[in-house]
Design a protein that fits this description.
six-stranded mixed beta sheet; TIM Barrel; 3 domains; globular; binds beta-D-glucopyranose; 723 residues; 20 helices; alpha/beta; Immunoglobulin-like; Rossmann fold
Length: 723
Amino acid sequence: MTPWERALADVTAGHAPHAAAAALVLLMTPEERRRCLSGDLPFWAGLAHMATGGIHRRPFRAATVPRLGIPGLAFSDGPRGVVVGTATCFPVSMARGATWDLDLEERIGEAIGIELRTVGANLFGGVCVNILHHPAWGRAQETYGEDPHHVGEFGAALTRGVQRHVMATVKHFAANSMENARFQVDVTIANQALHEVYLPHFKRVVQEGVACVMTAYNSLNGEWCGQSPALISDVLRTEWGFEGLVISDWIFGVRDAAASINAGLDLEMPGPMVRHAGLDAALASGDTTWAAIDACVTRTLAALLRQTTRTPSTAPDHSAVAGPGHRALAREAAAKSIVLLRNEPIDGAPLLPLAAASLTSVAVFGAWAAMPNLGDSGSSDVNPPDVVTPLEGLVAALPQTTVVLQSAPAAAAGSDVAIVVVGYTSADEGEYVGYHPHPALTALLPGADDPDEAAAFTAVIAAETTSTFAPRVGPEGIPGRRSVGGDRTSLRLSPTDEALIAAVVAINPRTIVAVVAGSAVIMEAWRHQVPAIVQLWYSGMEGGHGLADVLLGRTDASGRLPFTVPTDARHLPPFDRSATTAVYDGWHGYWRLARDRHAAAYPFGFGLSYTAWALGPTTVDEHEDHLVVQATVRNLGSREGADVVQVYAGRPADATRPARRLVAFARVSVPAHRETVVEIRIPWSALAVRQGDAWLIAAGTYVLTVGRHSADLDAVDLIIDRP
Ligand code: BGC
């Protein structure tokens, strides 16, 4: 029995993982403990390999100690699936946020967890819950939206599903909401806004039992997140009681060896870098201690012990990878995520849904209609075996109809309907993987790799040349080509796309526009000219089928926006993609527009359905530690549909905070001409505000607004008094 197996047996027998891990650390040499402070990847050899797609070839390993039998961590990114090898590609997180379906998100988490085990990973890196502070953020698609409650519930659901199989990592802690400047920007957030707006969703995922937290690249209130005692030690570990693993973001996520160790960052990823180079000096000067190092290593091994003893030991199920079950899930998510933004009558009836039987010809336009366009091509890129494009989805769904990709708008003339697929690709928005020649970063680069480790790593790669991994064709049409990504430079569609829409709708008024994007697109130049608009997202490998399902009404249009679509970028907070400093005041998204009395083009929570909805009797009951809202949801139409009941809360006496802040939601399916009563439980703590280090539920009158979106004029207000 190896020491690792003995530790596992102890934990299985009921010993605390932390104590078993501490016993293991006592058996480790100083060199082994020191190596466990960083990932296992030799820096330069690893970097060279990553540059050629290596990030998508194998999990990143850390804390492997062969002498003691410790298998170590094996990390794989997300969130739209498993990035290593070939996997099911789900719609991006922002699309999933638009489903408002937590059960679906949990099932996606399970599917990802099952697929992760087939590539030997035990740590998922894809629970990204940064708040969408501004739609220009290049990585907007990796999170779920602009509202802390909504984002937190989705992060918790993904974590629940994933952790039935492997550990999950929530990232990027904290306030990481801009991309190009991520290595340089210091974000200033006052205590109240920090705890009420930028941290609650992380806390929610921690409460769900997430195993690992990844720190952010940026600095927050004057300290780099990877070495911030305020964040890691005071908030995460002390206030929230997090006992799990804390890892850095990859390369340049740590600036100072001692500071990061002392703050409680357990692992610098993905390989020996700042900590390795700086450790001897830090120990010699007394800036850090072996006790602090051992605390890090103990937490890392404890997380691994917990995971190994809790999750299944059955053989990985390779048949599940992009198998029928996971494809069906990807299609369900794609269809449920589509948000119907506009559906005006043409010839007396709303243009959508289309009646398949009455369609003879459909003209499809747009550069991305017939091209796989799955989103970011940085760390979240997933390589599915195939992708159903919008065109393919429509062709498959309409076997009796001529569905043709057209380039000249004139071709719209003779068709029953025109569908224009416009929007962005990974070249317009995504993780920024360009070169940063910043001297402060260059100074962090380590010396040469350990030759033995580099040689061993290179030998592993060489042995894998027969791998079946084949990078997919990117949106630019070039196999394996990756975009440098980054923050958007505009919130509008390209002039080419806007001109295409105008030209097509001028020829055929029966025009539907499908917008592919990871967050809000300003549509003022054209939205009033077209009768039907859907937000399509980067909708995953089954996205084309999901689009056809919704356009043809095989399923209701049930997506709801997880963010605000403004009419004007000036209604948003400032955004400077090369900023070195930024101030977040807690007023963004729908809160900001409501405060400043700007109507949104499409408000947070909004989305049309193919049926008609109304709220019937709606009440609230007060209990000692929670409230119960009962809402009657009436489907007034003649077809089944799905709606999302949203509960917002505010205290009118408090003008320093939003009048309506989401505190609960429930997605509900209702048959035609029927009603259902939804019961929603809201803890009183959802109404608490931060004062100094404490949370307080102020006495006074609160208004709970129960409605169908954040600016719903038909919403029901319920008044409660807190003594
Ligand atoms: C990204 C992380 C990712 C990591 C590993 C970083 O550049 O910011 O989100 O998990 O790389 O690929």
